[in-house]
Amino acid sequence: MSNFVDFLFSMNCIQILLRNLSTSKILCSDDLFVHRDNSDNNPNTPFEFTEANLTRLKAIIQNYPEGAQRSALGAALDIVQRQIGWIPISAMHIVAEILSIPRMRVYEYATFHTMAKRRYRGKFNIKVCVTTPCMIRGSDEILQAVEVATKCIEGGLSDDGLFGVDTVQCQGACVHAPLLVIDDDYFEDVTVNDVYSIIQTLRNGCIPPPGPQSGRYGAEPACGLTTLLEPPPPPGYGLQKALLQETPKHPSPKTK
Ligand code: FES
Questions:
Q1: Mutation probe of ligand 1 site: the residue of 127, 129, 181 with most atoms within 8 A of C-beta
Q2: Which GO terms describe its biological process (predicted)?
């Protein structure tokens, strides 16, 4: 009897273990929309627009009518991010001041759009798409390869500060699944070997060629052409015979 109870207990443990293994990762939602001051990111974190970026921002603001300068908010935060790689809260305050809008409007934008990085994500921010089409095309293995090649786990930063690894939802390029997004570039149709070579190229200080790594052009089928294999039929193809006969000409008024 006691053996049987032990057996049931061990089965139960295995079941719990399996269930845990198959549970999706816990999302640190705090990370998405909560700000807590820390030594790296607080209202006194040094930030100043470079002269060139300030000129750029002023030019963008002028594209909008008087009183609608808040429309330049996304562009302003993008400039901050391109300048230093992320958006500290001190920079948000400066942006709010330049655009004459409440700080809350900037916080709302920065916490809603996941493209706005509110912490440093490395010199190269590698994002692996894990939504269903990419998942069934092997994004789990791709993520694993990225973690091994960068020596950095998802959500973390590599020791040398070169790579930050994140997972993202559909990037709108499912036809090329699985894919990585590195900063502004898409690397599509990637295999585990492609991942290692892309990351090694970045380590060597070069930028690997973006786009489909399989060599296919645009969004053409991965297995080659499946339609339009022959020259298209001529005009009139498939019409009833009666419709193909030459239309009788009307006699001209003079010949009547
Ligand atoms: S699911 Fe990955 S790009 Fe759409």
A1: 129
A2: mitochondrial electron transport, NADH to ubiquinone
C-alpha 99/C-alpha 112 separation (Å) is 19
β partners of residue 212: 188
Q: Record the pTM.
A: 0.74
The residues spanned by each domain of the chain are 34-112, 124-212
**225 has a pLDDT exceeding 50:** yes
* Superfamily the domain 124-212 falls into: Glutaredoxin (3.40.30.10)
The model's pLDDT over 117-156, given as tens digits with 9 standing for 90+, comes to 999 999 999 999 999 999 999 999 999 999 999 999 999 9
pLDDT digits (tens, 9 = 90+) for 24-74: 555 555 666 788 888 989 999 999 999 999 999 999 999 999 889 999 999
Distance 142 CA to ligand 1 centre (A): 13
Burial of 118 (0-12, 13-18, 19+ CB in 10 A): buried
Instruction: Report how far ligand 1's centroid is from the alpha carbon of 212 (Å).
Output: 14
> What class is the 34-112 domain?
mainly alpha
User: In Å, how far from its chain's centre is CA 131?
Assistant: 11
Ligand 1 proximity of 142 Cβ (cutoff 6 Å): no
Gap from CA of 31 to ligand 1 centroid (Å): 23
Cα(220)–Cα(131) distance, integer angstroms: 21
Greater confidence (77 vs 28) lies with 77
